[in-house]
Amino acid sequence: MKRFLRTPLVSARFLSLILLPLAVTMEQEYCMPEDYTNVAIPFRMVYEDVCPLIENILSEATYDFGDHCAMKCLQYPFCAGYNFKKKYQKNTPNCQLTHTLDHNFHHCNADDKGWIFYHPVAPRK
Length: 125
Description:
Layout: H1 2-30, H2 35-40, E1 43-50, E2 57-61, H3 66-75, E3 81-85, E4 95-98, E5 115-120
Antiparallel strand pairs: 1-5, 2-4, 3-4, 3-5
């Protein structure tokens, strides 16, 4: 009787060992590195390759990742969006929080461009 019960368990373990690498390969093939931000952070990109904000700024800071800038925006009750620049110089802000979505992005030189403006998917206060 014990021999009969062990046989299906062994085959189930063997089958899981065979299918596990296949599942990991499928995850790597269909999930891109930037996809996790779309699920984890409730913000949507509105404008790409824009200039920095010059007015209606709640806060400015320097962060390595856009997620940190998004989390900072969520901490401010009246934050309506944020502007983030991936490539930045040390000691210069690359995260700008704002309380409005109405922005006329001014003209700037090519070095200042590269900012991405996001707004929350769900309504804020």
